[in-house]
Each structure stands twice: as structure tokens, then as C-alpha cells.
Write a sequence for this structure.
């Protein structure tokens, strides 16, 4: 089937990661007509597979001052506009016995230059401030690091884009960039849900495909030199630390421990992988070993903390144009105007950068789009709060003071996840208040809200919106409940069964690299329930 | 011999992450069954702990509804110390200060000292209906509650006056942790124990100034004071066990459970040196009999039908088998075991007005069983279970030690062991 769409947009944005989301929001806020297309679901690329560190910039202060000052600026902006996606827990850069304490003064100076506030702490005080830190530390510097939840950040940008008129399509994969005489005019898409091809047209196409941007550009006949770098991380079952812990030395493997929502994360490794492997990410035994070995040095209690999952993401690193070997890698923002660079108008690429500099990347990309369309409108994304982060007198706080606990846990958790938007979640009726996910406190009301308002197509999407299945049981108890709710509202029963199998398979994938001890017990128990009681078969998907 | 300690990898404090979410604990929680406001062991314990570590405001005051019966821990197939997690969370996060009432109920020894001194006055007063109404409305102590009577002559005074001297005549010796209940409310139980132990050839000694074990202080959030008393007791136990080689026995399952398990788990007080040698009198006796070192001779004419109730802390200790086995040794006893269910009192919990309904609701299935048991009386090792059962059923309750003392042929036993 071939369906052509006569409507022409101002911009089509390819890629539903945080960069695409931010660009869609910025473009829509400046009054452009916007279509965003994503092949799977929002935040399924690097955006959903990173460390969630709201860098203060301190990590880059010594090696990459430009990135450092970008980070601190955006750090402060996100605290303002996205406070429900951000946790302001501060960070420590600790010097361990094997590290050189001399690096500390160099580090503090570099932070000062970049505009990052630092405070040198007495090791004793640092131990009291963050009891999980390696007690043998020689020195510690406090910096304004934080954590950022990539799923929430992406989703609330998407919501705001939608509020400003943008159209969003998931499960739509770009299979071709339609060009006409040195001009990109549209994209050909494959709709995975309906198994059909569609075409959409626009004045400007923005390639925000992260590492996949390399391939997307090649569809337009353009070469971008990208070097995929795999990074692996481990998720621990609960928070051991309240502050972000870093090593005070040149950046290396597994030297950051980030607390995020109910868990904490140690990472990352860094390893170049061939481009044809980017859709095939797995965590090796060697990765796991390094992460545990190094992690325990930062915080010894990691040795006695249950590991929930392991996962890996790919950094979209771009080689400088004049360096085909890829040694000269930029970690900064890369904005390519392909008209200037390659003589193809109507096509730009925005990549590189970081999760937390997405807004700046979006601003730069949108500035270029506006210039090309001769639209004269200022960027407002740094001032206007995202949906969920608006200032308000949250009456929820009062409601949660109630003793009745099932509800208060779900309500508190929902408020953490959706900010002020949590007010749209039905509460009060004992059905809405019942928990679907007990580990993360997700109620039936919240699941229904997500299905209705947050672009959910299947269980895995639902997980990204609500944390269903992200807790210690990894879907053991919540998956079937959520599947039931999804089935009521959007899926056919047969489809729902496949979806459930898919979801559990995806959960198992993250557990398999660390499947020992209690994790393997849990998995065994899960398989009794789903294979034994419900008769689900592994070949259901 | 030094014990070998095996430290497995990835095992968190109180095993809280060993939880596989099977929900078995939730089925065994007696409170959850009668009070839907209680989140239950899984949600309050391992699940809640994870959320509290993220943000302390996830602490829910509803956790005070937990009876600390530890039946969830007994049920958990993964050794998660659910009850401990909940109690520790209350200690760490609760912002509600203990009320005057809680302090009165918690300080069982101070109140006991005063009350037993004035027992002839106190007993009739607290029994008066108007007084109980006032206690109900002012102190929020439920007016249905019948206060345990205070004895005129404390056990300690009785011991010093009438028993102490004789104890050195024996070849073997033990120390006795009598607890507040025996001291202030029911000295007879202490006397019964001495009768049995003496007949078996053991001299019974008191510890150097025992203090209340502190269980009520812990459950009412008075942790500083509990810690002080616990440290004192551990020292006193050491003097007996380590210095004099005298094991410590007790007749209160709750006191001994608190000293063995709650001291290290909840108060962080080390008790390795004394733990193994601190036990219940029934266990001490049973083990002697079992290893052939002791035999009891019983009266021929003792005939009773006895229904045994397993207190929660006995369930947790796994020790009711010792008490019941001793009772079954008595030839004339027609023994029946009641199904192991919580009676609902949980120390001072049931005395609080706000808990009265939950407390009685929890106990109801047990009370019904007791009423239909056709027993002459109920036997149990816990003093607060005794109050609750006597208040809520038509049967009287006796301690296994008192039953043994009554059924024992003292002369004959003595002849065997005091040669
Ligand atoms: C291990 C690791 C740790 C990191 N840690 C941090 C950190 O702590 N802090 C921080 O700020 N940054 C961090 N980053 C960097 C950050 O994750 C990325 O820079 C950021 O997420 C990139 O977002 P993006 O939207 O540009 O790309 P992506 O998130 O990769 O988005 C690209 C999207 O395009 C879609 N797509 C691909 N091909 C097509 C197609 N043909 N048609 C339609 N759609 C398509 C993909 O499905 C994907 O959703 C980390 C990265 C990694 C790998
Ligand atoms: S200790 Fe008893 S009351 Fe408390 S959660 Fe466990 S079973 Fe329930
Ligand atoms: S019984 Fe144990 S393992 Fe099962 S849910 Fe309760 S705490 Fe978890």
C-alpha cells in the first residue's frame, strides 16, 4: 500500500529521543507546523539507555571546558523548567587512596573557570554527608550534580510539543528521504503497526536520529562520520547513595554512581563497536566485572546490594569532518547544515551532545530551521516550564497526608513521576487506587491515565511512562495486571498475550547478564507464574 | 570454638532485598485481615523500605498498626526480616512523639514499682468503672481493658526474704530473669519456677539488678531509654553466663525474645556472648530431659484438659515445642494444641484506645477456638496473651511452668536429683 499525504509541514523531525522531543517543542512553540516521527517508541535510543546524570559539568571541567560550561548552564535551566524530571541531590568528587590528591586543586580551578560552584569538604564531613561513600577517601569536592529522568524529560517535551500543535507518530520508521533536485522534501515511512508505507512532506527535515543519524543521512545520500561507543551500566535494587558519587580524576570506566528514583546506577564502560552492531546491544561478563569491581571502590555497600539489571547504550559520537580515523572525537553539540556542507538543502542534522544539553541542541537546531524559513521568533524554551513542572499550589500534598496508605504511596509516587500532571490521575475510588505495580507504587488510575494521555501502544511503552515493571520484581506481579488493563482499552486478547510475552522477554534480557542469587530466584518464580500458571509460552512472541 | 561466619555476596541488611515479592507474608499478617488501613508486611516492609530510601516522606504512620508479632517473618521463605524492617522504620522515621499514655504503658517497671507499693489502693481504683472511663477519655487507654492486678509483695522482695538463702545448698545453679510481670503482677509464677528448679537440683539466683527488657519502650518509640536498659541487662547476663558459668532462664517468652533477637536487630546491641545461654525455662528443662540428665516425676491424680496457645514470639523463636512437650509428659493431661494465631494484644498495643477494635478483631478466631475447646484452661508462655485471653474468653490461662509445678511430685523428683 502506498499512501501519500498532501499536507506539507514546516518541519519533520526524525527521531523520538530527547533531542527530537526538544526540537519538536521548540519548533512548535515558535509557531511552526511540526511532525515528529519515531520508529519504535519515545526514548528507545540512547535517551532511554544512559546514566541519567544531570551533569554539573564538573566531569568535563579539566578535559573539555566548553562542554563543562554548557552543562552548568543547562543544569540550572533544567532545575527551573523541568523540576519534576530532575532531582537536585548534588554530587561529590572523591579522591580515593589510589588517586592523586593533587588532581583536586586542578579540578577545582577548572570548575571555577567553567562557572561551576565547588566546595572542598573534609573527608570526615563527606562521610557524614554521604554515609555510603568509601570511608577511606582522602578528599571530596561537592558540586551541583543531580539526576534527571530521561523518560519523563522526553515525555513532557513531547506533551508540550503536542499542546503547541505538533503531531507525533511512533512506530513509524523512516525508510527513505525524498529528495528533489538537491532538496530534501519529505520522508517515506514504514508504519510498523499497520504494516504500510506512508509519505510525508515538509519544508525542512531535521535528522535527530542519534547514532542512527548516520544511516538516516545516508538515505539522503550524505555521509556523517559517526563512531558508536557502547556504554554499559548496572542498576542496583535500591538507593545506596543520596548524592551522586564521582571519582576525582580524569574520566574513566565505572566511576559514577547516580541515584535515580528508587534505584542507583553504576557506570559506565566505554567501548567502540562496529556500526552494524548498534541495534544489538548486550552487556558482557567482562563489562559486569569491571562495573562491580570499580563500583565497590566508590561505595563498598554495592557489594552487598542486589543487582537488578544490566544494560548498554550507544553514544552518538561524531568525528570531526577532516578526520576519517575518528580519533578526533567531539563530545560537544554537532549541528550540520547540509546545504552548506553537502549542497543538499532542506535537511539538517542535530546530534552529539548529551541528554541534559538537549534543550540547547534543540534551540540551536530550531534557530537554524527558523533562519531557513525566515521566521523571526525568539526561543522561549529556557524560560517556560514544561508540563508537570509548572508552579502551582499542589493540593496533592494535603491529600497525601492521609493515613490510608495504599493511596498515599501511589499518589506520592505519581507526583514524583508526573509532577503537577498527576492531578489528572483518577483517585479516590478503591479500584483506581489499587496498585498495579507494588514495587514502584503505580495505581490503576495512573496506568489508565498513561494509556489515555501518554501515547502508549504496549506494555513496554507503559513501563517508560510509569515505571511499571521497573521495580525489584521486574514485572513478576505487575505485568499481568497491566496487561489486563491494556487489553481492556486497546489490545485484542491474542495481541495482549504476545505483548505480555514480549515484555517479560525484555525484562529477562536485562537480568540475564547478572542472573545469580536472588535475581535468578525471582526469574524462576516469574516463570512459574507465567509459564506454569498462565500457560504463556516463550514462543508467544 | 569459634563459629564460622559465611558472608554471602549481595545480601542486604535485614535481607530486605532478598524479597521475591511472593506475598506469602501478607497472607499471614493478622492485622491486615481485620484492618484494611494497614498496608501489610510486604508493603510496609521490603517494598516500603525501598521507597523510604528514596525519600523519607514515604514513611507511613500506619506502620504503627504492626503488632510486631513476626508471623510474617516466620512465613517468609526468603528469610526477610520483615518485622525488623518495620520496627526500624518506625524508630528511624516516625515523627509522632510518644504520648504520656505511651510512656506510662511503656515503663512497665517504674509504674509497676509504684503500683505494687500501693497495690491495695491501685487495684480497686483501676478496676472502678468511672476510673476506667477517665483513663479511656484522657489517656486513651481503652475502657474495656482490665488492668492486670498488682501484687502487694514484689517477687524480688519475696525472694530475698524467703528463698535466697536456700539456693546455695544446691550443686548446680542458674540465674532467673523474672521480668516485670512476675515481679509486680504475678510473683506466683516465679515461685513455681523455683519450686521446680529446686526439685531438679538447681539453685535459682537473681541477676545483679535486672532491668525491664524494654520491649514496651521499643514499641512505643522510647529508644534511648530502651538502649540504656538493654546495655545494662547484657552486662548483667554476662556476669552470670560468662563470669559465673550460670545460664539465664526466663518464664517470659517476650522478654527472652527481646533480649536474644531485638537487642541486636533493633537496638544494634551485640549479645553474641550471652545469646546461646539465655533461654526459656521450658526449653532448658526439656533439653535436660531429652539428653537423659533429668527426669520429672508427676503426681498420679492430676487430670486436666489443656489447650495450648502459641504466642507470636514463641512462633518466631520456634520454641513452643519445648513447652508443649513438657505438658504432654504429664500423665493426666489431655492436651490439645490451638491453631497458632495471634491473640491481638501485642504487649501495650491492645491497651491503646485506637487499637482496641483491631486488637479484638485479630484475636477473634482464636477466642472462638478457645470457647469451643472444652478445655479446663488455656496454657501459654506469654503474660500479655494471658490478659487478652482471660479478658476475651471465659477460660483462665496458666503458664506451663505453673502447670508443671502443680502436677509435679516434688518429693519424688527431689529424691532423684538431690542425692
Ligand atoms: C551509556 C551512556 C550514558 C550516558 N550518560 C549520560 C548522562 O549521564 N547524562 C547525559 O546528559 N547524557 C548521557 N548520555 C548521552 C545521552 O544519552 C545522549 O546524548 C542523548 O540521549 C541523545 O539523544 P538523541 O535524542 O539525540 O538520540 P537517541 O535517544 O538515540 O534518539 C534517536 C531516536 O531516533 C530513532 N530512530 C532511529 N532511526 C530511525 C528511523 N529510521 N526512523 C525513525 N526514527 C529513528 C531511534 O529509535 C531513537 O529513538 C549517555 C549516553 C550513553 C550511551
Ligand atoms: S509483624 Fe505481625 S502485624 Fe507486623 S506486619 Fe508482620 S505479621 Fe503483620
Ligand atoms: S514472604 Fe518474604 S519474599 Fe515473600 S513477599 Fe513477603 S517478604 Fe517478600
Amino acid at each position: 500500500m502506498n499512501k501519500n499525504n498532501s499536507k506539507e509541514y514546516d518541519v519533520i523531525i526524525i527521531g523520538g529521543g530527547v533531542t527530537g522531543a526538544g526540537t519538536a517543542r521548540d519548533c512548535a512553540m515558535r509557531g511552526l507546523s511540526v511532525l515528529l516521527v519515531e520508529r519504535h517508541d519515545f526514548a528507545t535510543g540512547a535517551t532511554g539507555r544512559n546514566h541519567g546524570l544531570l551533569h554539573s559539568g564538573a566531569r568535563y571541567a579539566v578535559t573539555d571546558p566548553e562542554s563543562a560550561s554548557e552543562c552548568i548552564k543547562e543544569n540550572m535551566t533544567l532545575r527551573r523548567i523541568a523540576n519534576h524530571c530532575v532531582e537536585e541531590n548534588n554530587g561529590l568528587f572523591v579522591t580515593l587512596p589510589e588517586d592523586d590528591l593533587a588532581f583536586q586543586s586542578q579540578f577545582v580551578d577548572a570548575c571555577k573557570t567553567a562557572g561551576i560552584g565547588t566546595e572542598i569538604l573534609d573527608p570526615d564531613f563527606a562521610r557524614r554527608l554521604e554515609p555510603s561513600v568509601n570511608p577511606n577517601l582522602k578528599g571530596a569536592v561537592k558540586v551541583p550534580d543531580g539526576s534527571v529522568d530521561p523518560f519523563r524529560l522526553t515525555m513532557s517535551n513531547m506533551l508540550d510539543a503536542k499542546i503547541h500543535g505538533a503531531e507525533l507518530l511512533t512506530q513509524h520508521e523512516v525508510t527513505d528521504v525524498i529528495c528533489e533536485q538537491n532538496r530534501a522534501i519529505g520522508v517515506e515511512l514504514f508504519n510498523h503497526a499497520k504494516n504500510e508505507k506512508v509519505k510525508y512532506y515538509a519544508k525542512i527535515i531535521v535528522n535527530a536520529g542519534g547514532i542512527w543519524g548516520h544511516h538516516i543521512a545516508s538515505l539522503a545520500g550524505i555521509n556523517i562520520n559517526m563512531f558508536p561507543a557502547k556504554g554499559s551500566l548496572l542498576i542496583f535494587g535500591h538507593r545506596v547513595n543520596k548524592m551522586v558519587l564521582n571519582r576525582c580524576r580524569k574520566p574513566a570506566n565505572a566511576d559514577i554512581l547516580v541515584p535515580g528514583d528508587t534505584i542507583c546506577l553504576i557506570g559506565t564502560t566505554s567501548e567502540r563497536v562496529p556500526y552494524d552492531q548498534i541495534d544489538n546491544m548486550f552487556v558482557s561478563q567482562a563489562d559486569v566485572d569491571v562495573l562491580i569491581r570499580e563500583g565497590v571502590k566508590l561505595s563498598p555497600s554495592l557489594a552487598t546490594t542486589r543487582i537488578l539489571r544490566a544494560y548498554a547504550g550507544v553514544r552518538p559520537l561524531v568525528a570531526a569532518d577532516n578526520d576519517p580515523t575518528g580519533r578526533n572525537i567531539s563530545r560537544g553539540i554537532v549541528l550540520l547544515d547540509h546545504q552548506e556542507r553537502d549542497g543538499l538543502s532542506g535537511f539538517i542534522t542535530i546530534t552529539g551532545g548529551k541528554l541534559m544539553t538537549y534543550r540547547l541542541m534543540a534551540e540551536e537546531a530550531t534557530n537554524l530551521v527558523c533562519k531557513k524559513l525566515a521566521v523571526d521568533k525568539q526561543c522561549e524554551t529556557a524560560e517556560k516550564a514544561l508540563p508537570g513542572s509548572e508552579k502551582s499550589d499542589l493540593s496533592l500534598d494535603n491529600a497525601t497526608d492521609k493515613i490510608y496508605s495504599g493511596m498515599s504511596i501511589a499518589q506520592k509516587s505519581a507526583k514524583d513521576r508526573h509532577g503537577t500532571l498527576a492531578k489528572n490521575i483518577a483517585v479516590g475510588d478503591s479500584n483506581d487506587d489499587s496498585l498495579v505495580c507494588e514495587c514502584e507504587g503505580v495505581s490503576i488510575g495512573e496506568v489508565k491515565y498513561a494509556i489515555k494521555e501518554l501515547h502508549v501502544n504496549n506494555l513496554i511503552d507503559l513501563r517508560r511512562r510509569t515505571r511499571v515493571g521497573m521495580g525489584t520484581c521486574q514485572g513478576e506481579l505487575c505485568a499481568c495486571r497491566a496487561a489486563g488493563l491494556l487489553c481492556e482499552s486497546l489490545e485484542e486478547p491474542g495481541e495482549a498475550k504476545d505483548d505480555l510475552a514480549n515484555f517479560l522477554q525484555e525484562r529477562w534480557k536485562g537480568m540475564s547478564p547478572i542472573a545469580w542469587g536472588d535475581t535468578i530466584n525471582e526469574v524462576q518464580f516469574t516463570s512459574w507464574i507465567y509459564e506454569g500458571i498462565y500457560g504463556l509460552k516463550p514462543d508467544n512472541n | 570454638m569459634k563459629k564460622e561466619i559465611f558472608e554471602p555476596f549481595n545480601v542486604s541488611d535485614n535481607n530486605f532485598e532478598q524479597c521475591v515479592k511472593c506475598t506469602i507474608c501478607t497472607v499471614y499478617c493478622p492485622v491486615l485481615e481485620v484492618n484494611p488501613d494497614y498496608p501489610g508486611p510486604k508493603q510496609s516492609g521490603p517494598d516500603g523500605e525501598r521507597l523510604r530510601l528514596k525519600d523519607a516522606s514515604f514513611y507511613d504512620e500506619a506502620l504503627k498498626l504492626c503488632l510486631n508479632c513476626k508471623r510474617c517473618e516466620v512465613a517468609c521463605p526468603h528469610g526477610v526480616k520483615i518485622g525488623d524492617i518495620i520496627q526500624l522504620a518506625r524508630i528511624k522515621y516516625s515523627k509522632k512523639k510518644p504520648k504520656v499514655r505511651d510512656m506510662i504503658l511503656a515503663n512497665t517497671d517504674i509504674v509497676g514499682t509504684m503500683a505494687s507499693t500501693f497495690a491495695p489502693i491501685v487495684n480497686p481504683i483501676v478496676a472502678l468503672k468511672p476510673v476506667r472511663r477517665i483513663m479511656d477519655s484522657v489517656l486513651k487507654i481503652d475502657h474495656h481493658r482490665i488492668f492486670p492486678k498488682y501484687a502487694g509483695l514484689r517477687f524480688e522482695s519475696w525472694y530475698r526474704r524467703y528463698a535466697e538463702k536456700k539456693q546455695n545448698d544446691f550443686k548446680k545453679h542458674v540465674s532467673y530473669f523474672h521480668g516485670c510481670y512476675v515481679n509486680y503482677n504475678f510473683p506466683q509464677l516465679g515461685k513455681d519456677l523455683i519450686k521446680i528448679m529446686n526439685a531438679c537440683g538447681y539453685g535459682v539466683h537473681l541477676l545483679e539488678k535486672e532491668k525491664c527488657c524494654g520491649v514496651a519502650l521499643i514499641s512505643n518509640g522510647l529508644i534511648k531509654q530502651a538502649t540504656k536498659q538493654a546495655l545494662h541487662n547484657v552486662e548483667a547476663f554476662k556476669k552470670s553466663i560468662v563470669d559465673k558459668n550460670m545460664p539465664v532462664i526466663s518464664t517470659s517468652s517476650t522478654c527472652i525474645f527481646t533480649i536474644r533477637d531485638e537487642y541486636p536487630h533493633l537496638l544494634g546491641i551485640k549479645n553474641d556472648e550471652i545469646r546461646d545461654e539465655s533461654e526459656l525455662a521450658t526449653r532448658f528443662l526439656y533439653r535436660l530431659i531429652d539428653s537423659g540428665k533429668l527426669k520429672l516425676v508427676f503426681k498420679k491424680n492430676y487430670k486436666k484438659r489443656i489447650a495450648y496457645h502459641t504466642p507470636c514470639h514463641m512462633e518466631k523463636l520456634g520454641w513452643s515445642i519445648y513447652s508443649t512437650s513438657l505438658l504432654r509428659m504429664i500423665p493426666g493431661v489431655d492436651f490439645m494444641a490451638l491453631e497458632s494465631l495471634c491473640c491481638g494484644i501485642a504487649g501495650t498495643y491492645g491497651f491503646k484506645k485506637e487499637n482496641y477494635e483491631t486488637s479484638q478483631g485479630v484475636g477473634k478466631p482464636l477466642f472462638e477456638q478457645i470457647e469451643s475447646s472444652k478445655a479446663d484452661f488455656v496454657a501459654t508462655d506469654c503474660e500479655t496473651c494471658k490478659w487478652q485471653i482471660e479478658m476475651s474468653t471465659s477460660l483462665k490461662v496458666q503458664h506451663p511452668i505453673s502447670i508443671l509445678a502443680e502436677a509435679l511430685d516434688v518429693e519424688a523428683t527431689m529424691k532423684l536429683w538431690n542425692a
In short: The interface with chain B takes residues 237-239, 261-262, 303-307, 403-406, 408-409, 412-413, 416, 438-439, 441, 471-473, 476-477, 516-518, 521-522, 525 of chain A (CB under 8 Å). Residues A 14-20, 37-40, 44-47, 50-53, 55, 173-174, 208-212, 216, 231, 268, 313-316, 351, 353-356 surround flavin-adenine dinucleotide (ligand 1) (CB under 6 Å). DSSP finds 18 helices and 23 strands in chain A. Confidence is low (pLDDT under 50) at residues 395-406 of chain A.
